[in-house]
Amino acid sequence: MSESRAFRFSVPGEHPCLPGHFPGRPVVPGVVLLDRVMAAAGLAGAARLPSAKFLRPVLPGEEVLVELRPLEGGRLGFTAHVGGELAFRGEVAPP
Q1: CA distance 51 to 30
Q2: Cβ neighbour number for residue 42 with a 10 Å cutoff
Q3: Above 80 in pLDDT, residue 84?
Q4: Would you kindly state where each structural domain of the chain is located, as residue ranges?
Q5: pTM for the full model?
Q6: pLDDT given for residue 44 in this prediction
Q7: Which of 7, 10, 17, 21 is catalytic?
Q8: Is 21 tagged catalytic?
Q9: 3-state secondary structure of 80
């Protein structure tokens, strides 16, 4: 990827990851969020995650806006916002 790009997604309330995460107040697991980022980066199933920081929970149905930007060495930086608030950020890299 040679230029920055953005995409949006949401995880529906019926997603199978939610019933036990957390009972009474479902939160989308970080692994589900990162999977969406890696898939959009074209690195699904074959990537490293040099860094990731979660700053707020993402709730079912919330729209997440992810921005990917190229970094040195084939890595991609990402930021993810929900309602204008930074939710998580990090880097993904090829294996």
Answers
A1: 13
A2: 13
A3: yes
A4: 5-93
A5: 0.92
A6: 76
A7: 21
A8: yes
A9: strand
